[in-house]
Amino acid sequence: MKAGIVVFPGTNRERDMALALARVTGRRPDMLWHRDADLPPGLDLVVLAGGFSYGDYLRCGAMAARSPIMRAVRTHAARGGHVLGVCNGFQILCEAGMLPGALLRNASLRFLSMDCHMRVERADTPFTHRFQRGAVFRATMAHGDGNYFADAATLDRLEGEGLVALRYTTPDGQATEAANRNGAARGIAGILSPSLRVLGLMPHPENQVDPEIDGTDGLPLFESLAGSFAAAA
Amino acid sequence: MKVRVTVMPKAGVLDPQGKAIGQALGSLGFAGVGEVRAGKVIELELAETDPASAQAAAEEMARRLLANTVIESFRVEVLAP
What we know:
The complex is a heterodimer of chains A (233) and B (81). Chain A is of the alpha/beta class.
């Protein structure tokens, strides 16, 4: 799998993401500069990593979504390329219109820096096939604006088409209000594009990929991706 | 020509910031404050000299960047040149 990570001014999780990707692919992903208008040839996966691109000015992800490289990322997705957006990357995908909805300020108004648990709602996607459907895994959340919002019709469509990938739950998989710390609509932590090739999620699976550092709960997501391309090759 | 774009959270979109402002006003002793909504104001200096063109240009800017129409509505006012 050939992966590239976009670096915007204020992106700060690209190195953790690179380590997670290198762990499953054995090769370092390319770092892609936000002002470039083209992606390197042959990329399978583009990752929009976490951070505070452009200082979260105007709205989280608003500036990054309109930067030159995003035209190329959109073209990549339209051609069937894969895109993963984590945290600020999810916000950017929504701002760019590549995923529906928006990420509002956390309902508590507090920046949340803590672990959460997510239930895998779809285990038949390029991002999740190494999980069991209904599996619950732990990840770290670190965001001020992770409260997923979309109008009721959009939410119903996402649910009906099976595009809700991940939902906040308790460690034993109960989607309770208390487990939904940021107040996201219907407890949504991550959504897919209709092609299943674009995934955005707020928590950071790249934090949990090393048994020496906080466990490997997030590793199946990266193994899924690597496996998708190994099978295709 | 100066143009003012006012961006507000849409009705029905949770506005926790507005809610917090309302609570703070209450704790300062201001009675009778109902719903509080917090948005933002963006003022633009445009080279346009025709008010209708300035209005149209600013609306296009609002649709494409200044507002996220999934969650926000906007209003454009052309101010005195």
